[in-house]
């Protein structure tokens, strides 16, 4: 996958452009630290920010975006903003209401991508109908899902008028999800990685360290490069400016086929987050 710079995009199945690399803000608390992280990401060339209702930080993200846009001298249209509807709000009317709440907190007029956060059985189809309505009426640029396995997607397809454009899932060298990725590719759904660095648990891995030494890069940079070369959008989380810059410094090298395969072979189907099939919602 030839991704040349931080502003490079993938084309979603509806023609919308989505940046390959973005900033995640999972569990970052409201406050100046969050605002500064978002501003710093925008200042340093990031054009994608990912949040969610359950993170309870949409307000701070919104402030960071407004201040970041102003300081960087760019327009809102140049940013790709994602949020997600939480499990308690899944349902037709409640999802539309949750979308409005997210917009208000973020202080924006639209989202670029809105996702169903988890596949809560018996609820996600009504929520998907709401997302389709939001999309068809031009309220959101793209819609998708998060943490959906193949059987969830197949079930959704039975009634969906519109196929999801994105599926954001846990994805890292110990959870490569090859079958799911192949299914998504065959159905025109862009796979996106959350927790690409396995919440920091991979940053002292000896196999990855050996590869990192070869390229004179950090383990984080190797993993994020592996994501992109596998055709997976990725949103590493960081609140420190030097890390935000480091995470984006991955466009001046390319992993060899052998190193890509070596990382692929690390898979253990190991999750740091909940299993979508056994998650107590």
UniProtKB/TrEMBL annotation:
Under InterPro entries, the record lists: AKR, AKR5G, Aldo/ket_reductase_CS, NAD(P)_OxRdtase_dom_sf, NADP_OxRdtase_dom
Recorded hits in PROSITE patterns, A to Z, give: ALDOKETO_REDUCTASE_1, ALDOKETO_REDUCTASE_2, ALDOKETO_REDUCTASE_3
Which named protein is this? Aldo/keto reductase
Which Pfam families does the record cross-reference, listed alphabetically?
A: Aldo_ket_red
NADP-dependent oxidoreductase domain residues are 28-267
Q: Which GO terms describe its molecular function?
A: oxidoreductase activity, acting on the CH-OH group of donors, NAD or NADP as acceptor
Annotated family: Belongs to the aldo/keto reductase family.
Native organism taxonomy: Bacteria, Bacillati, Bacillota, Bacilli, Bacillales
Keyword NADP on this protein? yes
